[in-house]
Design brief:
Elements (H helix, E strand, L loop, with lengths): L13 H17 L5 H10 L2 H11 L5 H22 L5 H10 L4 H12 L3 H14 L1 H10 L10 H18 L7 H21 L2 H16 L5 H16 L2 H12 L12 H19 L9 H11 L16 H30 L5 H16 L9 H24 L1
Helix pairs in contact: 1-2, 1-6, 1-7, 3-6, 4-5, 4-16, 6-18, 7-9, 7-10, 9-10, 9-11, 9-17, 11-17, 14-16, 16-17, 17-18
């Protein structure tokens, strides 16, 4: 088979076509850096009541760990609702909880995908075209004279999910070994994802790239020569970007290793100050947290007391998922969130040795964990939507591969 095989829609019930189309379009729109992607995902949540009728038809019940993951997500949603109601309501707290509510997309998307039964070719195409569509904000910015994706939405979130889709599409090209065009398309998707990430100037994405290449190398998706060549190209490309050169130059010019005086860029220093403030706030209410608006409220008091620098109070959250969760919902919240991630990791781990879906799952989890060091990725609507749909697609195809083995 030399051409990509598309789903045979003549043999698909109209409902399955509709479901597959909704999920696919919602996922693709995430990569165009437009708010319409979140509106489309909101429509998917409307399927929630109907999903209960599909469970018996999906064969999903025989996968106990998947049911456990669903339960943990329901627990996480309910627990955070209690966190919301135990503190004063305001626009920020309601918005933060509304974002976490999108975790319900994982069970919804999983059930709908099992109902519509997309082929592995179609799943590969979904990730590949998603990464390619990530170039649309780059083109739009270039034409309009903007930078970083500022002509539309949030550049950090867009750049990181574009990179993630590129890496996953590249890994999944080996799921179609008989198809030479899949191999080429995987390389194109990877290049597009890296270009979008570089354009967005998000450091979280750059940090994840070496880890991703190590995973690709360990699964023999690439060889050592290809990995070395790719990293060399990325290093050269990185140092050709003015913003990166300026940050490195600033640090060296304002630092003295002999006097142990290091002056970081404003973005990096701001994050360190925010993390310091978040840790102080967490210590006040370590078990259950202080609510979704506790960081903004408490940093103002800490600044007045002279315990943290003033610009730490200029943000609504500490730009670190782990500290943000500790501040808002405490150790209990972080424990439940960690349990969800570990449950998904266990599902990926159970896939057959060398499975491209195991590699794709590992890439997804590892990149999101790294992204979360400098931003909030498990508690922001856009990235939660991406994570839930991407996880559901990978888990479905991985489990079906094992069932058919």
């Amino acid at each position: 088979m030399n051409n990509l095989t598309m789903p045979n829609i003549k043999n698909m019930p109209a409902l399955n076509i509709f479901i597959t189309t909704c999920i696919t379009l919602s996922f693709w729109l995430l990569h165009t850096n437009q708010s319409s992607s979140q509106s489309a995902a909101t429509l998917l949540l409307l399927f929630a009541p109907f999903c209960l009728f599909f469970i018996k038809d999906t064969e999903i019940n025989k996968h106990n760990i998947l049911i456990v993951t669903f339960s943990l997500i329901f627990l996480f949603t309910i627990y955070n609702f209690l966190v919301l109601t135990q503190h004063e309501f305001n626009k920020l707290s309601l918005s933060s909880y509304r974002a976490l509510f999108f975790w319900l997309l994982f069970p919804i998307a999983s059930i709908l995908i099992w109902k519509s039964k997309p082929s592995k070719q179609w799943v590969f195409i979904i990730f590949s075209l998603a990464a390619i569509f990530s170039l649309s904000p780059v083109i739009r910015d270039y034409v309009n004279g903007y930078q970083r994706g500022f002509s539309s939405g949030h550049p950090i979130f867009w750049g990181d999910i574009a990179l993630c889709s590129g890496m996953i599409a590249f890994a999944l090209r080996s799921s179609l070994p008989e198809n030479k065009w899949a191999n080429y398309l995987g390389y194109v998707a990877l290049c597009c994802g890296i270009i979008a990430s570089a354009w967005s100037q998000t450091r979280g994405g750059w940090i994840s790239i070496p880890i991703s290449f190590i995973l690709l190398l360990s699964f023999r998706s690439i060889n050592k020569l290809q990995a070395a060549f790719a990293i060399a190209i990325l290093v050269v490309a990185a140092f050709s970007i003015d913003s990166i050169k300026d940050r490195i130059s600033y640090t060296f010019q304002n630092s003295n290793i002999f006097t142990e005086q290091i002056k970081l860029g404003s973005s990096t220093q701001a994050r360190l100050d925010m993390w310091q403030a978040a840790f102080i706030i967490f210590q006040e209410k370590p078990i259950l947290g202080g609510g979704f608006d506790s960081y903004r409220i408490n940093t103002k008091e800490l600044v007045e007391q002279g315990r943290v620098k003033e610009w730490a109070a200029g943000f609504k959250q500490p730009h670190n998922e782990y500290l943000s969760t500790l501040v808002t919902s405490g150790l209990v919240g972080l424990l439940i969130l960690s349990s969800i991630i570990l449950a998904m990791l266990y599902i990926f781990h159970r896939f057959s040795k060398g499975s491209p879906y195991k590699l794709a799952g590992y890439l997804l989890i590892s990149q999101f964990l790294i992204f979360s060091l400098s931003e909030i990725f498990f508690s922001t609507k856009l990235t939660i939507i991406y994570f839930c749909i991407a996880s559901a697609l990978i888990i479905y195809t991985g489990l079906k591969e094992d069932d058919n083995a």
